[in-house]
Hints:
This protein is of the alpha+beta class. It has helices spanning 15-18, 123-128, 130-133, 137-159, 198-208, 246-266, 268-274, 289-300, 312-326, 377-386, 395-402, 415-423, and strands spanning 27-39, 43-50, 53-60, 76-85, 93-104, 163-164, 170-171, 183-186, 189-193, 210-218, 231-240, 286-288, 330-334, 347-348, 351-355, 357-362, 365-372, 408-414. 29% of the residues lie in helices and 27% in strands.
Amino acid sequence: xEFVTGIxxxxxxxxxxxxxxxxxxxxxKVNGFIHTIRDMGNVAFMILRKRDGLIQCxxxxxxxxxxxxxxxxxxxxxVTGTLIxxxxxxxxxEIRLSGIKVLSEPADPMPLPIAKWxxxxxxxxxxxxxxxxxxxxxxxxxxxxxxxxxxxxxDFLYQEGFTEIHTPKIGAKSAEGGANVFKLDYFHRPAIxxxxxxxxxxMMVGVYDRxxxxxxxxxxEKHNTKRHLNEYTSLDLEMGYIDGFEDIMxxxxxxxxxxxxxxxxxxxRELKILEIELPKTDQIPAVRFDEIKRLVSEKxxxxxxxxxxxxPEEEVLISRYAKEEWDADFVFVTHYPSKKRPFYAMDDxxxxxxxxxxxxxxxxxxxxxxxxxxxxxxxxxxxxEARGMTTEGMEQYLSAFxxxxxxxxGLGIGMERLTMKLMGEDNVRETTLFPRDLSRLxx
Length: 443
């Protein structure tokens, strides 16, 4: 019998360890994928792909104890050699090889030229070969940046006293209403995939005051656009004891400030690879829905077709206006019409045609919807009745309000959209690991 006592020390080194001061001149052992081989005759340069970057290895006839013809792209190998400084190599170091051990070999040649700096192929090809295309340095850098966004969301909210929760994705009733739900048979009972964790996070405000979740949501929308997905990751928060919906906007601004600082500090390599210019977050303008519609109409001679909502073209013009007038990359649009907000949105006491809610636009696209919720049980029932709704299937949700809830509000951020606009991509599938849309159920 043996006991497992914790993480085992490995002989093989990672890139961060190789880059440590004083490592040059040492004999090292490293494993990784063969990213590419450049054969120069008596000398060849073999680039290994590691989890945190590339390392150049120098293969020399008569010195390296292996035959170059036995190596090919996508082999996984373990190499041994002397680490030396090299200004021309990635990261400023390279390994002068003495030995190579092949750990595994691909069954077929690579279907995509992943070693190229830019993967110049169609989005469809990239998605069809997703496990392969993501091995490209630039492609995988996108999802390290996305990691940083979610990490910033979690770390900032922990810092602000939030509790992370995990809510069910199968339910009896949708929080958002409407017909855009995926229906399923749940042991001979009708059920749906949740469009939002809204009901659950509101209930949990009555438990922890401040809660958040980073999890998938599902929308059965028959859209085939560059901005829609049928499954996406929503960064949700809900907080109690607010003075107004402005507290929610302030919390999101704080998250964005924290996250951009985190990306600048911890993800500088990926930012450089993708040539990302981080947006300004020191202050974000907030402007009323009706006012910004008027301002955009006047400045750009725009005639709206949707008086109670924002059209995609309008979102672009609003962001353009914010940049030109206020030098702002983000802009809050507040006081959305009640007609376009769900029943739980609190109406503006000054004018019930509008709600105490907002969207956050970023470089021409809505990435967040949020606002203050109705917390009074009787007011909630009154709003539901006015909309011709029944309480069937919502008894558990309503019971939280029956037994008292604090003033509260929250928001949901589309993670893939935020990543997309940060990187300057024009299709949300570019920043989705394995997209689900009208035509795609795999990989």
